[in-house]
Write a structure and sequence with these properties.
The chain is an alpha+beta fold. The protein has helices spanning 2-6, 11-18, 20-25; strands spanning 43-46, 60-65, 68-69. Strand 2 (60-65) and strand 3 form a beta hairpin.
Length: 77
């Protein structure tokens, strides 16, 4: 993702291509790709806004798979 930003893509475009567009490309947009009621969800919570810089995706606070929190994923520095 960082390379896409370095190549000139905006962070919102990068996030959309990795989520909504990828799901639609696989004809799975009705099941995944966005956080909506009734859809399957894997997502992360970050400290910093990735729309400011895609590298902020590395500031992990929490990880959720299938809508449930994953314990012991975040390591303290």
């Amino acid at each position: 993702m960082a390379m896409k930003q370095e190549a000139g893509m905006m962070p919102l475009e990068i996030l959309r291509s990795a989520t909504i567009d990828a799901a639609d490309c696989m004809n799975l947009g009705h099941l995944i790709g966005t956080l909506e009621s009734g859809k399957q969800a894997d997502f992360i919570v970050v400290r910093q806004n990735p729309l400011d810089d895609i590298n902020h995706l590395r500031s992990l606070e929490a990880v959720y798979i299938g809508g449930g929190a994953v314990d012991d994923v975040i390591q303290d520095d």
